[in-house]
Amino acid sequence: MLRAIIWMLMYLVVSPVLQAKPCDSVESLAWLVGNWSSKSSKVKINESWKQVSKKSFEGSGSTYSLKKNKIVSSESLRLVEMSGEIFYLAKVASNELPIAFKLTSCTDKTAIFENSKHDFPKKLSYQLTEDGNITVFVSGEKGKGFSIDFIGIRDNKTGIHSK
Q1: Which residues lie below 8 Å from residue 22, measured CB to CB, with a gap of 6+?
Q2: Which of 15, 81, 93, 115 could in theory staple to 101 by disulfide, Cβ–Cβ 3.0 to 4.6 A?
Q3: In a 3-state reduction of DSSP, which class is residue 30?
């Protein structure tokens, strides 16, 4: 009986470790590659990612105001693998230097990047949805924030999600 309890405890401790797929390289985040768009009644948000090497992705994001009929913000993005860790770097106009967020949690469908010292956001959570789209949760203190539901942009000629 004691042996069965020990095996059960070992299974409970080891099983989540075996099931969790650590993201030890940017290549494990390949599901982010592509062009993504979100639209509301006020804005259209685009985000694009491409892999430029085995250790980095480049991206960009922009917010277009439908009322003002112009881009109101843009950012340069990077995913970089350095010293066995992965960082999300965002360069926005309001900051002189890029802001770094460290990958703190990852599965084959999620990636969470955090920087507790940044004012806002403190956490960026990317999630691949069941229908192949992406939801991004942007949060600050006490989880307050917002989410963006991105849809993959399809190539007009082929109808295929652009990668």
Answers
A1: 106
A2: 115
A3: helix
